[in-house]
Amino acid sequence: MKLFTGLIFCSLVLGASGLLSFLGEAARGTWDMLRAYHDMREANYIGADKYFHARGNYDAAQRGPGGAWAAKVISDGRENFQRFTDRFSFGGSGRGAEDSRADQAANEWGRSGKDPNHFRPHGLPDKY
């Protein structure tokens, strides 16, 4: 009986540890996504959108499964929200479905561990 109780206790502790690790990765991944968004707004560089999508997802996914999960939730949520609001705004955002698909491709590229510099536009300052 003591062995069974010990095994149950160890399983709970290890499970809680894994959950805390996942949540920590997700929090740090969320921060990576916010940093990429902030950098994109600060750079205000034409043609750099896909680069910042890929970079934010790449940085978040490097944190581990929790970071990759956060990147996917944030990326999908942002694209879905954009599509939703486009239905109610006069003329939409001007982005369209094709641009949304390209954003999602850049998001997946970064999350899969591929180099985000593939999308880096010529002339973007080295700061980014």
TrEMBL record:
InterPro entries: Serum_amyloid_A (IPR000096), Synovial_Prolif_Regulator (IPR052464)
Signal peptide as annotated in the record: 1-18
Keyword entries, A-Z: Acute phase, HDL, Signal
Pfam families named among the record's database cross-references: SAA
SMART domains the UniProt entry points to: SAA
Comp. bias (Basic and acidic residues): 111-128
Record-level GO BP terms: acute-phase response
Top-level taxonomic group: Eukaryota
GO cellular component: high-density lipoprotein particle
The keyword Signal is annotated on this UniProt entry: yes
Stretches the record annotates as Disordered: 89-128
Family label: Belongs to the SAA family.
Main function: Major acute phase reactant. Apolipoprotein of the HDL complex.
Protein name: Serum amyloid A protein
Organism from which the protein derives: Equus asinus (Donkey)
